[in-house]
Amino acid sequence: MLMRIKKLLERNALIITILITISVVVISIVPTDSIQVSVKTKGTDKIAHVLMYFILTFFWLLTFNLSFKKRNFNTLLLITIAIFGMFIEILQETITESREFDWYDGLANTLGVLIAFVFFNILHRKFGTREI
């Protein structure tokens, strides 16, 4: 079962990762008026930012490590995704009327990137490239 999942991921990793990336952009740019949020707890949006960028980074790391067999691009990949998160924050300020730039959102994005990197490396050390 795990081997079938691994093979599916290897064959479709880039497509899945691009779809996740597009989803992050859409979720980040869609006007907040069209989003129905029932939980209004302070800081909840920061958790959402951490989770989105954790998933985004983790899948890009998987894609580069499973599909392209390129572990040496991890640092560049992390920097690129962190810059991407800040770019999305700038887009929110400039192209939407209901969203604004927030340094704390950018910080939460970067935190998600770093947590994903640490988690990915723990899995990589434990299971090696062939098993994750």
Protein model, in words:
The protein has four helices and no strands. The protein is mainly α and 132 residues long. It has one domain (2-34, 41-127). The radius of gyration is 16 Å and the shape is elongated.
What's the short version?
The chain is an all-alpha fold and 132 residues long. The protein is 75% helix and 0% strand.
Kindly estimate the percentage of residues that lie in beta strands according to DSSP.
under 5%
Biggest sheet architecture: none
Helix content: over 70%
Radius of gyration: 16 Å
- Write down the overall geometry: elongated
End-to-end separation in angstroms reads: 13 Å
Chain-averaged pLDDT: 82
**Structural class computed from helices and strand pairing:** mainly alpha
Helix and strand run: HHHH
Number of strands: 0
Number of domains: 1
Individual helix count: 4
Spans of at least 5 consecutive residues with low confidence: none
